[in-house]
Write a structure and sequence with these properties.
This protein is mainly alpha-helical and about 220 residues long. The chain is built from eleven helices and no strands. Helix content is about 55%, strand content about 0%. The longest helix has 30 residues, at about 5-30. The termini are far apart. InterPro entries: Cyt_c-like_dom, Cyt_c-like_dom_sf, Cytochrome_c4-like, Cytochrome_c_Oxidase_Subunit. It is found in: Periplasm.
Length: about 220
Protein backbone atom coordinates (compact mmCIF):
# COMPACT_ATOMS: atom_id res chain seq x y z
CA UNK A 1 0.00 0.00 0.00
CA UNK A 2 1.37 3.41 -0.99
CA UNK A 3 1.75 6.30 1.44
CA UNK A 4 -1.05 8.10 -0.37
CA UNK A 5 -3.37 5.12 0.11
CA UNK A 6 -2.39 4.85 3.76
CA UNK A 7 -3.09 8.56 4.22
CA UNK A 8 -6.48 8.23 2.57
CA UNK A 9 -7.37 5.24 4.73
CA UNK A 10 -6.37 7.11 7.88
CA UNK A 11 -8.47 10.10 6.85
CA UNK A 12 -11.46 7.84 6.15
CA UNK A 13 -11.08 6.17 9.53
CA UNK A 14 -11.00 9.58 11.24
CA UNK A 15 -14.11 10.69 9.34
CA UNK A 16 -15.96 7.45 10.23
CA UNK A 17 -15.02 7.91 13.87
CA UNK A 18 -16.37 11.46 13.83
CA UNK A 19 -19.63 10.29 12.24
CA UNK A 20 -20.02 7.60 14.88
CA UNK A 21 -19.46 10.14 17.67
CA UNK A 22 -22.03 12.54 16.23
CA UNK A 23 -24.57 9.77 15.71
CA UNK A 24 -24.06 8.64 19.29
CA UNK A 25 -24.73 12.16 20.55
CA UNK A 26 -27.80 12.41 18.35
CA UNK A 27 -29.19 9.13 19.67
CA UNK A 28 -28.49 10.24 23.24
CA UNK A 29 -30.35 13.48 22.67
CA UNK A 30 -33.35 11.66 21.27
CA UNK A 31 -33.51 9.25 24.18
CA UNK A 32 -33.05 11.73 27.01
CA UNK A 33 -35.73 14.27 26.19
CA UNK A 34 -35.68 17.86 27.42
CA UNK A 35 -34.55 18.87 30.92
CA UNK A 36 -36.03 21.82 32.76
CA UNK A 37 -34.09 24.74 34.20
CA UNK A 38 -33.43 24.22 37.91
CA UNK A 39 -33.07 27.88 38.83
CA UNK A 40 -35.47 30.64 39.84
CA UNK A 41 -36.15 32.98 36.90
CA UNK A 42 -37.36 35.82 39.15
CA UNK A 43 -34.21 35.64 41.23
CA UNK A 44 -32.16 35.55 38.03
CA UNK A 45 -33.82 38.69 36.74
CA UNK A 46 -33.08 40.45 40.02
CA UNK A 47 -29.34 39.88 39.68
CA UNK A 48 -29.12 40.35 35.90
CA UNK A 49 -28.58 44.10 36.05
CA UNK A 50 -24.84 43.90 35.44
CA UNK A 51 -25.45 41.79 32.32
CA UNK A 52 -27.75 44.26 30.56
CA UNK A 53 -25.09 46.59 29.17
CA UNK A 54 -23.81 43.90 26.82
CA UNK A 55 -26.67 41.40 26.62
CA UNK A 56 -29.74 43.64 26.89
CA UNK A 57 -32.42 43.71 29.56
CA UNK A 58 -34.19 40.69 28.07
CA UNK A 59 -31.12 38.88 26.81
CA UNK A 60 -31.32 40.28 23.27
CA UNK A 61 -27.95 41.97 22.99
CA UNK A 62 -28.02 45.32 21.17
CA UNK A 63 -24.48 44.88 19.84
CA UNK A 64 -23.76 42.07 17.37
CA UNK A 65 -20.40 41.23 18.93
CA UNK A 66 -22.15 40.02 22.09
CA UNK A 67 -24.31 36.88 22.13
CA UNK A 68 -28.04 36.86 22.60
CA UNK A 69 -28.86 34.96 25.78
CA UNK A 70 -32.64 35.07 25.39
CA UNK A 71 -34.09 31.63 24.76
CA UNK A 72 -30.71 29.96 25.15
CA UNK A 73 -30.62 26.49 26.69
CA UNK A 74 -30.20 26.85 30.45
CA UNK A 75 -27.73 23.98 30.77
CA UNK A 76 -25.49 25.59 28.16
CA UNK A 77 -25.57 28.96 29.95
CA UNK A 78 -24.61 27.34 33.25
CA UNK A 79 -21.76 25.46 31.57
CA UNK A 80 -20.37 28.65 30.05
CA UNK A 81 -20.48 30.50 33.37
CA UNK A 82 -18.70 27.61 35.07
CA UNK A 83 -16.12 27.53 32.29
CA UNK A 84 -15.49 31.27 32.72
CA UNK A 85 -14.95 30.68 36.43
CA UNK A 86 -12.59 27.80 35.71
CA UNK A 87 -10.57 29.98 33.37
CA UNK A 88 -10.34 32.63 36.10
CA UNK A 89 -9.13 30.05 38.60
CA UNK A 90 -6.54 28.52 36.26
CA UNK A 91 -5.23 31.67 34.63
CA UNK A 92 -6.94 30.79 31.37
CA UNK A 93 -5.34 27.35 31.04
CA UNK A 94 -8.69 25.61 31.37
CA UNK A 95 -12.31 26.56 30.76
CA UNK A 96 -13.32 29.47 28.53
CA UNK A 97 -10.83 32.29 28.45
CA UNK A 98 -12.53 35.69 28.16
CA UNK A 99 -11.19 38.55 30.30
CA UNK A 100 -14.52 40.36 30.66
CA UNK A 101 -16.69 37.33 31.38
CA UNK A 102 -14.12 35.73 33.65
CA UNK A 103 -14.40 38.76 35.91
CA UNK A 104 -18.20 38.87 35.68
CA UNK A 105 -18.57 35.21 36.57
CA UNK A 106 -15.90 35.06 39.25
CA UNK A 107 -18.17 35.72 42.24
CA UNK A 108 -21.28 33.88 41.09
CA UNK A 109 -22.51 30.99 43.20
CA UNK A 110 -24.02 27.82 41.77
CA UNK A 111 -27.44 29.18 42.70
CA UNK A 112 -26.72 32.49 40.96
CA UNK A 113 -25.77 30.68 37.77
CA UNK A 114 -28.84 28.48 37.81
CA UNK A 115 -31.09 31.50 38.45
CA UNK A 116 -29.56 33.57 35.65
CA UNK A 117 -29.84 30.63 33.26
CA UNK A 118 -33.49 30.13 34.21
CA UNK A 119 -34.24 33.82 33.58
CA UNK A 120 -32.53 34.09 30.20
CA UNK A 121 -33.76 30.75 28.90
CA UNK A 122 -37.34 31.89 29.61
CA UNK A 123 -36.97 34.99 27.41
CA UNK A 124 -37.73 35.12 23.68
CA UNK A 125 -34.86 35.56 21.26
CA UNK A 126 -35.51 38.11 18.54
CA UNK A 127 -34.57 36.47 15.22
CA UNK A 128 -32.32 37.97 12.59
CA UNK A 129 -32.77 37.59 8.84
CA UNK A 130 -30.84 35.37 6.44
CA UNK A 131 -29.58 37.20 3.35
CA UNK A 132 -31.04 35.62 0.24
CA UNK A 133 -27.62 35.10 -1.34
CA UNK A 134 -26.46 32.67 1.39
CA UNK A 135 -29.63 30.58 1.78
CA UNK A 136 -28.73 27.78 -0.65
CA UNK A 137 -25.08 27.41 0.38
CA UNK A 138 -25.89 27.86 4.06
CA UNK A 139 -28.63 25.24 3.99
CA UNK A 140 -26.33 22.76 2.27
CA UNK A 141 -23.54 23.25 4.79
CA UNK A 142 -25.85 23.30 7.81
CA UNK A 143 -27.79 20.18 6.87
CA UNK A 144 -25.17 18.13 5.10
CA UNK A 145 -21.74 19.44 6.06
CA UNK A 146 -18.95 18.57 3.65
CA UNK A 147 -17.94 14.92 3.61
CA UNK A 148 -14.88 15.44 1.41
CA UNK A 149 -13.41 17.91 3.90
CA UNK A 150 -14.62 16.05 6.98
CA UNK A 151 -16.98 18.82 8.07
CA UNK A 152 -19.88 17.43 10.08
CA UNK A 153 -23.36 18.86 9.46
CA UNK A 154 -24.30 21.50 12.05
CA UNK A 155 -27.76 19.96 12.29
CA UNK A 156 -26.30 16.75 13.72
CA UNK A 157 -25.78 18.42 17.10
CA UNK A 158 -27.76 21.67 16.91
CA UNK A 159 -30.88 20.16 15.37
CA UNK A 160 -32.77 20.95 12.15
CA UNK A 161 -33.99 24.30 13.51
CA UNK A 162 -30.80 25.23 15.34
CA UNK A 163 -32.30 24.86 18.82
CA UNK A 164 -29.45 22.77 20.21
CA UNK A 165 -30.04 20.41 23.12
CA UNK A 166 -30.73 21.14 26.78
CA UNK A 167 -29.63 17.67 27.88
CA UNK A 168 -26.41 17.59 25.84
CA UNK A 169 -25.60 21.25 26.63
CA UNK A 170 -25.48 22.14 22.95
CA UNK A 171 -26.39 25.79 22.36
CA UNK A 172 -29.28 27.24 20.44
CA UNK A 173 -27.61 28.93 17.47
CA UNK A 174 -30.59 29.98 15.37
CA UNK A 175 -31.41 33.69 15.52
CA UNK A 176 -27.96 34.52 16.89
CA UNK A 177 -25.93 37.51 15.73
CA UNK A 178 -23.86 36.62 12.65
CA UNK A 179 -20.85 38.59 13.90
CA UNK A 180 -20.81 36.64 17.15
CA UNK A 181 -21.19 33.24 15.46
CA UNK A 182 -18.37 34.00 13.03
CA UNK A 183 -16.09 35.19 15.84
CA UNK A 184 -16.67 31.99 17.80
CA UNK A 185 -15.95 29.79 14.78
CA UNK A 186 -12.68 31.65 14.30
CA UNK A 187 -11.80 31.19 17.98
CA UNK A 188 -12.64 27.48 17.89
CA UNK A 189 -10.51 27.10 14.76
CA UNK A 190 -7.46 28.74 16.36
CA UNK A 191 -8.15 27.13 19.77
CA UNK A 192 -8.44 30.55 21.33
CA UNK A 193 -11.69 29.08 22.58
CA UNK A 194 -11.29 25.48 23.69
CA UNK A 195 -14.21 24.60 25.97
CA UNK A 196 -16.03 22.50 23.36
CA UNK A 197 -16.83 18.89 24.20
CA UNK A 198 -14.05 16.56 23.01
CA UNK A 199 -12.72 19.30 20.73
CA UNK A 200 -15.63 18.77 18.36
CA UNK A 201 -16.01 22.41 17.37
CA UNK A 202 -12.29 22.86 16.82
CA UNK A 203 -12.20 19.85 14.51
CA UNK A 204 -15.07 21.26 12.45
CA UNK A 205 -14.11 24.94 12.45
CA UNK A 206 -10.46 24.19 11.62
CA UNK A 207 -11.57 22.63 8.33
CA UNK A 208 -13.83 25.51 7.39
CA UNK A 209 -12.73 28.26 5.05
CA UNK A 210 -13.39 31.91 5.94
CA UNK A 211 -16.13 31.90 3.29
CA UNK A 212 -17.80 28.91 4.99
CA UNK A 213 -17.83 30.74 8.32
CA UNK A 214 -19.27 33.84 6.69
CA UNK A 215 -22.05 31.86 5.00
CA UNK A 216 -23.06 29.73 7.98
CA UNK A 217 -23.00 32.64 10.45
CA UNK A 218 -25.34 34.66 8.22
CA UNK A 219 -27.54 31.64 7.48
CA UNK A 220 -28.23 30.96 11.16
CA UNK A 221 -29.78 34.37 11.79
CA UNK A 222 -32.98 33.49 9.97
CA UNK A 223 -33.06 29.79 10.84
CA UNK A 224 -36.20 29.45 12.96
Amino acid sequence: MSRRDMGSEAENNKWNAMKSLVLSFAMLIGLMGTAQAAGDAAAGEAISGTCTACHGADGNSPASIYPKLAGQNASYLVKQLKDFQLAMQTGGEKGRNDPVMMGMAAMLTEENMQDLAAFYSAQTMKPEETPEEVVAAGQLLYRGGDIERGITACAACHGPRGNGSETAKFPKISGQHADYIKAQLEKFSSKERANDQNGMMHDIAYKMKPADMEIISKYLGGLH
